[in-house]
Q: What sequence folds into this?
């Protein structure tokens, strides 16, 4: 095949793909979507996410009975408080998780919890469908004993309300828990019977350790009660640009106890984003003493009525 013929075939293939779509989707539409999701949730959509954005938002157009992306985006921008913003954000967030994902973090968490005074508190800031906060809860019970439920608190949040509903239910397929040891499965899960065969449910005592709530990490203020010994913020910062990452990390600081740990995702590096955290191990950061002292001083000045 000649180069010229190859180009013709590629162009024809592209036109065919466009024809098969239910809605016209222009470069201007995608540019607006990228700007709106960055403004709303801090997410930076790359060029190769164009097809993903179309397929997920086309469902919203159908649900709203609209004919064009322009109509949909105009409706969003016309009402900043519209409930559709939540559906828009939910559609464009990616939720990839698993029990004990990036497993090297959990022995570090266990060792750290042993040496900290009680009560011990953790914020899981990108909880998704619950596998991560329940993995944290299991680690703490296995480390501190059954009484960990009374000594430890886990606040689990996410921007996506739909995944939080799944986390709240705590129900998973056998395939989702197949990597867990049998001993852990029996201790922390109930096996579904009859109509629920093939499913497991987190035991009530483990579920009680996890408090769920919706938090947008790009909000100027968090409705979160700290301070925390540990913050898990794994595999979410990769969707933010560097300025947004810096803003999120600066908001974490006053919510952390002295010497608190921050767990990041395997492809995330905060070393060049902020000086408030120093790398302690593989994608594990420790709040620096100076950062905590500075945050405490700013809090005292604010309470005294002085400029922050």
A:
């Amino acid at each position: 095949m000649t180069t010229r013929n190859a180009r013709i075939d590629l162009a024809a293939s592209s036109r065919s793909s466009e024809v098969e779509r239910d809605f016209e989707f222009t470069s201007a539409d995608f540019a607006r979507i990228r700007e709106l999701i960055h403004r709303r949730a801090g997410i930076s959509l790359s060029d190769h996410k164009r097809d993903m954005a179309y397929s997920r938002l086309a469902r919203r157009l159908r649900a709203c009975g609209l004919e064009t992306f322009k109509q949909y985006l105009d409706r969003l921008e016309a009402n900043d408080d519209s409930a559709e913003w939540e559906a828009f954000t939910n559609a464009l967030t990616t939720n990839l998780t698993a029990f004990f994902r990036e497993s090297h973090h959990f022995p570090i968490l266990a060792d750290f919890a042993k040496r900290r005074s009680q009560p011990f508190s953790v914020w899981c800031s990108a909880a998704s469908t619950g596998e991560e906060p329940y993995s944290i809860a299991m680690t703490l019970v296995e480390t501190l004993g059954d009484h960990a439920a009374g000594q430890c608190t886990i606040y689990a949040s996410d921007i996506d309300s739909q995944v939080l509903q799944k986390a709240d239910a705590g129900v998973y397929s056998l395939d989702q828990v197949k990597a867990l040891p049998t001993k852990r499965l029996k201790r922390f899960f109930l096996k579904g019977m009859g109509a629920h065969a093939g499913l497991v449910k987190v035991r009530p005592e483990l579920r009680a350790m996890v408090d769920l709530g919706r938090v947008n990490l790009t909000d100027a203020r968090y409705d979160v009660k700290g301070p925390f010994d540990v913050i898990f913020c794994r595999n979410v910062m990769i969707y933010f640009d560097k300025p947004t990452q810096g803003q999120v990390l600066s908001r974490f600081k006053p919510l952390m106890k002295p010497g608190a740990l921050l767990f990041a995702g395997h492809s995330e590096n905060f070393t060049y984003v902020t000086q408030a955290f120093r790398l302690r191990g593989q994608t594990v950061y420790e709040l620096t003493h100076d950062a905590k002292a500075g945050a405490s001083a700013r809090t005292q000045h604010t309470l005294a009525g002085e400029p922050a």
